Amino acid sequence: MQKKLGLVLMLLVGVLSAFPAWASEPIRIGALFSVTGPASFLGEPERNTLEMLVKDANAKGGIKGHKLELVVYDTQGDATKAVQLATKLIKNDKVSVIVGPSTTGETMAVIPVAEKEKVPLISCAAGIKITDPVKKYVFKTPANDHLAAEKIFNYMAAKKQKSVALLTVTDGFGSSGREQLKDMAKKKGITIAADETYGPKDTDMTAQLTKIKGSKADAIICWGTNPGPAIVTRNVKQLGIKIPLYQSHGVASKKYIELAGPVNAEGVILPAGKLAIFDKLAKNDPQVKLLKDYDTTYKKAYNIEASTFGGYAYDAFLMISDALKKGAKTSDQIRDGLEGIKKLVSVSGIFNMTPKEHNGLDLSAFEMVKIVNGDWEIAK
């Protein structure tokens, strides 16, 4: 009898030791990304990055003994669909946390669902209104657009450029950016010589740029996400406009250069996350190793370099991991863990959250970069 009991115990130990990581309940992570549609340049690298990180974490035994289960839905950039899918993630899939959506408009539509259902949402969109004012269950990984605006105006001031023409897209990202640009221009003493807009589906902006050409502005700031800014860049060249063209952080990927054409994009300046120029940073920069590792791993997995936008999902994963490593399991515990993040080195910067700050980045998250010969250089 004792021999049989001993044999059974040995078998049980063997079985348990074969699956040590899954001794605890899995943590279900939901994700809403614009994998297809006009914002696919955002959503595709976000999805790829999150899937890659979850797969790697599970291969290493999960986090704190918990397997990660990822449920990803494609919103196609549609705010109504994003709301429906957020509800599905919470009600049907029983996720503990949601990463995304990819755009500001979708995120603003989803926020009431996250708040009502008390499930933390880590947005991959940049609009400042996502986290200002603070909502209890809402966080975001891209630096706020007012920081990008300030970075541009600081650079303009150093170049003694005193007036600017604005050309912003009429979607959530563009409207928020326009508001922040106008507010920041007042603070920095920069005159707005022209204030033009374009629609997300517009295919030619020569009319707006012709007005801007006659405005005597010292520079142009275009604020949007592709394809619009790429069209603006081509139109600027076609019209022979010689003043500097600044873009927002919304185009900080090689896709923009590809769409605009390297010749047209030559000399364009924008605030970008450090991933774009990690190989040109000082060796003692605290982000360098992580950025290099991310780019190398992503290239190996998908045969293309990592993008700043995929980095937003990377940041969200590190935030969730940080909370789980500190013992969080439930949605509320994850939320509390996110709010307590301190000095978390990630792709977009070094995050420091507080109950009054759910983005946690500052001006150091951006570098001013310039497009030279189809690649990024640190702008001097």
Automatic annotation (TrEMBL):
InterPro entries referenced in this protein's UniProt entry, alphabetically: BCAA_transport, Leu-bd, Leu_Ile_Val-bd, Peripla_BP_I
Protein name listed in UniProt: ABC transporter substrate-binding protein
A Pfam family recorded for this sequence: Peripla_BP_6
Ranges for domain Leucine-binding protein: 26-359
Keyword set, alphabetical order: Amino-acid transport, Signal, Transport
UniProt cross-references to PANTHER family, sorted A to Z: BLR7848 PROTEIN (PTHR30483:SF38), LEUCINE-SPECIFIC-BINDING PROTEIN (PTHR30483)
Residues in the signal sequence: 1-23
GO biological process, one term: amino acid transport
Similarity section: Belongs to the leucine-binding protein family.
Tree of life domain: Bacteria
